[in-house]
Amino acid sequence: MDLTGYRIRITNAANCPVFNEDDIFNFSGYALALPMETHLCMGFAQNLASVLPEISSVNALAFEFSCSGEKIGQSCSLTYLIEKSDIEAKILPGAIPGKNIEAISHLLLNLPMFRSFDKNSMLRFLSYFQVEHIYDLGFKSYRTGDIFIKKGEPGRNLYIIIAGRAEVIDEKGNSIAFLANGEVFGEMSLISGNPISATVRATAPSTVIRLSSRDFSRILPKFPALQTYFSRLLTQRLSRSNIERAKDLSAVMAGDLSEMPPEDVMQTMHINQKSGVLNFHRGDVRAHILFNQGEIIHAEYDGQTGVEVIAKICQNRSGKFNFSPKLPPEAEKMEILGNFMAILMSALKDIDDS
């Protein structure tokens, strides 16, 4: 294939005898133009040949790949980008000095996750990142069959599909759902703190944005529009995958925290717009949360009250819970403590910090 207009940039070289970090090589037609003094590594050549057919099928500015020396018996590794040669020209015009805001802002504003953002809120969002290149936001490319996340592993990133397709599969390899451009995955594990519940793999060459769990928990409480988006997304996810469990809980109104942790119980109350008192008890310790139409209006833990005790409740992984669908008279004067998703994310972040 003709790759004129693309170049290779070496972003990381560990014990590599051939390439150095920040080396740049341009494509010319069907060939890669290497300086006379540079020797071509056969392991790199094989790796490059395997990924080049995918470049033409995904219209992204930059693709990240990695290469190791295993095939040639060397203990070295390499990370490289195949990017458009005019990437700076596409990104920099009109950008805030030192930051590639304009192109990235335009790209993100077209995604469902940021559809309610205006230009100013997007600039504020991007100000939380040190964006020097388009791939600094975590842009990464995957090949067909590559695994994005695997069931049972801890959640580390939120993924947004920029180009390509993915499928959610169960432990037997059966397809549960399909994901396309603009869709998000990995958020359930970041919100709940639980391990990843299903494996997601690429069914076509794909490019994604990855937000780390730290960035996600740091930024989400600052943007109500994102909190609303993930509240709706959470509702959809549970409606699809956990609907039977939600029905059982609504019918029984009791359970064991070792089987269903506090944050999952609270999410179910929120999604089903329940009104009443959610009680937790472990030994002599008692806690309760008052819900009004799925929103938290009061929280109490071992004599302490306020939104801060939600984190203490979430720390309990043993004990019992039950739900009484009747609010006390004093609840009529209570106001919502805040956005449910922001409260829950803040509580889980406090647990991580401690």
Features of this protein?
11 helices; 19 strands; 28% strand; 30% helix; 5-stranded antiparallel beta sheet; elongated; alpha+beta; 354 residues; Jelly Rolls
What is the element layout, followed by pairings?
Blueprint: E1 6-14, E2 24-28, E3 31-33, H1 42-55, E4 62-68, E5 77-84, H2 87-91, H3 101-109, H4 119-126, E6 139-142, E7 147-149, E8 157-163, E9 166-169, E10 175-179, E11 184-185, H5 187-192, E12 199-202, E13 206-212, H6 213-219, H7 224-241, H8 243-252, E14 254-256, H9 262-271, E15 276-282, E16 285-292, E17 295-301, E18 304-305, H10 309-314, E19 320-324, H11 340-353
Antiparallel strand pairs: 1-2, 1-5, 2-3, 4-5, 6-13, 7-12, 8-11, 8-13, 9-10, 9-12, 14-19, 15-16, 15-19, 16-17, 17-18
Question: What report would you give on this structure?
Answer:
- The chain has 354 residues and is α+β, with helices and mostly antiparallel strands.
- The protein has 3 domains: 6-85, no CATH class; 142-222, Jelly Rolls (Sandwich), CATH 2.60.120.10; 251-353, no CATH class.
- It has helices at 42-55, 87-91, 101-109, 119-126, 187-192, 213-219, 224-241, 243-252, 262-271, 309-314, 340-353; strands spanning 6-14, 24-28, 31-33, 62-68, 77-84, 139-142, 147-149, 157-163, 166-169, 175-179, 184-185, 199-202, 206-212, 254-256, 276-282, 285-292, 295-301, 304-305, 320-324.
- The strands form 4 sheets. It has a 6-stranded antiparallel β-sheet with strand order 14-19-15-16-17-18.
- The longest helix has 18 residues, at 224-241.
- The model is unreliable at 88-99 (pLDDT under 50).
